[in-house]
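ZP: hey, is the zinc ion complex queued? I don't see it on the tracker
AM: it wasn't, my bad. submitting now with these inputs:
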Amino acid sequence: MASNGELPSKQKAAQFHPSDQSVHINEIPVPSIKPDELLVKVRAASLCHSDLMLFEPNDQGLNLGSGDPFTMGHEGCGTILEVGSEAKGFKKGDRVGWLPIIDCCFECDACQVHNLYCETGQSKVQGMTVDGYFQTYCAVKWQNAAIIPDGMDLDSSAPIFCAGATAFNSVEATRAELKGDPKDVYVAVIGCGGLGHLGIQYLKAYGYKVIGIDLSPEALEEAKAQGADYLFNPKEDKDYVKKILEITGKGCHAAINFTNSVPAYSSTPDVIRYNGVLMVTGIPQKPISFSGMDVSMLRIRVRGANNGRTDQLRNCLEFSHKHGIKPHVTQFKLEDFQKMLDTMHAGQHKGRMGVLFE
Ligand SMILES: [Zn+2]
Ligand SMILES: [Zn+2]
């Protein structure tokens, strides 16, 4: 903030330029808020694997990155500076995080499931089509925001608001399908990166036996640090399916796939027991396919989960605080955004990477 306590008029932002598919650190205006918005001073924003979709072709019906440059980032947290006149339940100084869909109605049947599919057809994703959070000041719809519990660390909380919420909702959706004492129930976590390292923490908080599967040694190290009971790298261990069947008896009771890899999805049923749960969470750029026989004969129960709604986000925050769930974040400066992006492209990171603002 400027020395007189007033907001500055300009700020730096990491912006995606659709014209050449590159990122620039630009100087842009500090936004002024609408009546249904909160002005937040961002403390931390983090990079999600889906941010890489901006740089790749996709056929999942997402229209990403056309038109003017916009600020990247859809995972952030910070402190409220101004509260719009229509916003309910927030005050200046509250520490908040939030979900990224705007221009939806928050009211229709579709919004009750996921507001990306709002019946108005107007939904936009901050950080994907309009300005996101790799900037110091941002406008947030009050309906998307949730207060961060007292005592929860703000600096490391940004990943909760996409990766954490998604991992939590996946674990909750999986749990709803499972019976028995968690200590006797095996859940495979496929993809132990940003989402997976949090998914493992949520599963362990419930007491499940966790089998971490990833092609990256760094991700498996992180999975181990977060308490995974068994670790497998299918690239290095051709017998991993056989070994998992030996450990679990009949196969895992559930497998949560956090990857964006079609081959990883194709091989997921191999580690699942009869009538086990296959939780579709990560979104590959290409369609995934399962055997109709496997689905119809209930060999696998295919379910889905995502970052969800604000009421689910509040549950996630409460649970995360109570159980000491903590994202592992490597912090970068905004100026080093490209370096952070390159590291994610190369898959050489553990947990999450993000920018910590002043
Ligand atoms: Zn995300
Ligand atoms: Zn709606």
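AM: back. The domain at 10-162+308-356 is CATH 3.90.180.10 (Quinone Oxidoreductase; Chain A, domain 1).
ZP: great, adding it to the tracker
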